């Protein structure tokens, strides 16, 4: 299965890179405040659905660009054809395709492909991989040694003050913070040990489903801010190795969201 999916992701990734090189011709629609979408997102989703259906003809879909007509609660894909659309449209390289397969309400496969960097992250029951090589979350234990990732609130500004307080604390106690502009990339970089932890509010299932499973299979812990399991369909996510997860949870718990 992974072989077939890799080929599909490489093809759609090439399509996205070609389209990105003709940026000024891309028609952009603003779905709602700060939520951009282009025909490249929509066309990529169509190609993803077509390719994945060849592999799993009975599967349902939950896709950012509207593919939810095919329903099957026992087996379904959660897909984001471009995570990091704003980066894509402004000519940056940090965007990706993110997919996850759920069977009986549990993830069984996840893949995140970053076309501009030719990096394919994936996970299945045997572990997590980057371009076929096993990856693992970072083992750093002290907050002062860590590099953190987050995403800025951009449409729901409730909880902004608490969020800024968390940033203030981390700015003063870590090696720094990054805001890549793609939650899926933040997650897979956490899985590969390039970040020690990632947290964000108000993401959607397709932003996190693939990347969160890859973090888990890379030995990381993923929960909501309050330590629950509802990080895919809920309103917050916190991913890190177990020790850093605990330290981040304590900082976050001091605020109201
Ligand atoms: C966005 C990215 C971004 C996150 C936003 C998402 P999109 O997804 O993951 O990092 O901060 O919340 O909506 O719109 O580029 O698919
Ligand atoms: Ca997204
Ligand atoms: Ca998207």
Care to describe what's here?
The protein is α+β, with helices and mostly antiparallel strands and 257 residues long. Helices cover 35% and strands 28% of the residues. The chain has helices at residues 2-20, 39-55, 85-89, 160-173, 183-191, 205-217, 242-253, and strands spanning 28-32, 35-38, 60-63, 75-83, 96-103, 106-114, 119-124, 127-130, 133-134, 147-150, 176-178, 197-201, 221-223, 236-240. The strands form 3 sheets. The chain has a 7-stranded mixed β-sheet with strand order 3-4-5-6-7-8-9, with helices on both faces. Strands 11-10-12-14-13 form a 5-stranded mixed β-sheet, sandwiched between helices. It has a two-stranded antiparallel sheet with strand order 1-2. The longest helix has 19 residues, at 2-20. The relative contact order is 0.13. The mean pLDDT is 94. The chain binds D-MYO-inositol-1-phosphate and calcium ion (CA) (2 copies). One calcium ion is lined by residues 41, 64, 80, 82-83, 85.
Features:
257 residues, 14 strands, 2 domains, alpha+beta, binds D-MYO-inositol-1-phosphate, Fructose-1,6-Bisphosphatase, Chain A, domain 1, D-Maltodextrin-Binding Protein, domain 2, binds calcium ion
Number of strands: 14
Number of domains: 2
Give the class-level CATH name of the largest domain: Alpha Beta
Helix content range: 25-40%
What's the CATH H-level homologous superfamily of the largest domain?
Fructose-1,6-Bisphosphatase, subunit A, domain 1
Counting copies of identical and different chains, the oligomeric state is single chain
Ranges with pLDDT <50 over ≥5 residues? none
CATH topology of the largest domain, what is it called?
A: Fructose-1,6-Bisphosphatase, Chain A, domain 1
Largest sheet: 7 strands, mixed
User: What small-molecule ligands were found?
Assistant: D-MYO-inositol-1-phosphate, calcium ion
- Major sheet: arrangement of strands: 3-4-5-6-7-8-9
Strand content: 25-35%
- Second rung of CATH, namely the architecture of the largest domain: 2-Layer Sandwich
Number of helices, counting only DSSP H or I runs of 4 residues or more: 7
Order of helices and strands: HEEHEEHEEEEEEHEHEHEEH
Rg computed from alpha carbons, rounded to a whole number of angstroms: 17 Å
Principal-axes shape call? globular
Ends distance: 40 Å
Alpha-beta classification: alpha+beta
Let me know the average pLDDT.
94
